[in-house]
Design brief:
It is built from four helices and seven strands. With 147 residues, it is α/β, with parallel strands linked by helices. The chain has one domain: Rossmann fold, CATH 3.40.50.300. A hairpin with a 5-residue loop joins strand 6 and strand 7. The protein starts with a strand and ends in a 12-residue tail after the last strand. Belongs to the TsaE family. Its main location: cytoplasm.
């Protein structure tokens, strides 16, 4: 578990992840609305070179970023509006994974995850801070924790 005292700590964790993430990785972000999933993704994207604030892809569902916008291709996915896991197949995430880092919010709506998925669950504490719990696959063991 990692304690995240505030938004700055969540952004910093995202930046730390950017130092160790690479194309072909999947980072799944779980947690209630307002838990900090998009904030963590924004910290990661900013550290990869994105100059403007990354929008939440809730309505677009899939938001790609490519070189030179980011250091390497990144696809930010928000599955909140997906009701049927079969709809996820139509997004073509398997193809994107070939050369992109996938950041997936609301991964539980996908019905399945890839074996190389770093699963990060964010929850709020009574004092408004966040706690992050990680499920770390073998492909991430040498890179976790990133800070």
């Amino acid at each position: 578990m990692i304690a995240l005292a505030d938004e700055a700590a969540t952004l910093a964790l995202g930046a730390a992840l950017a130092r160790v993430a690479r194309p072909g990785d999947v980072i799944a972000l779980s947690g209630d609305l307002g838990a900090g999933k998009t904030t963590l993704a924004r910290g990661l994207l900013a550290a990869l070179g994105l100059e403007e604030e990354a929008p939440s892809p809730t309505f677009a569902i899939v938001q790609p970023y490519d070189v030179p916008e980011t250091r390497f291709p990144v696809t930010h996915v928000d599955l909140y509006r997906i009701d049927d896991p079969e709809d996820v197949e139509e997004l073509g995430l398997d193809d994107l994974l070939q050369d992109s880092l996938l950041i997936i919010e609301w991964p539980e709506r996908a019905g399945r995850l890839w074996p190389q998925t770093l699963q990060l669950a964010l929850s709020r504490t009574a004092d408004g801070a966040r706690v992050l719990t990680a499920t770390v696959p073998a492909s991430w063991e040498s890179r976790w924790p990133p800070i």
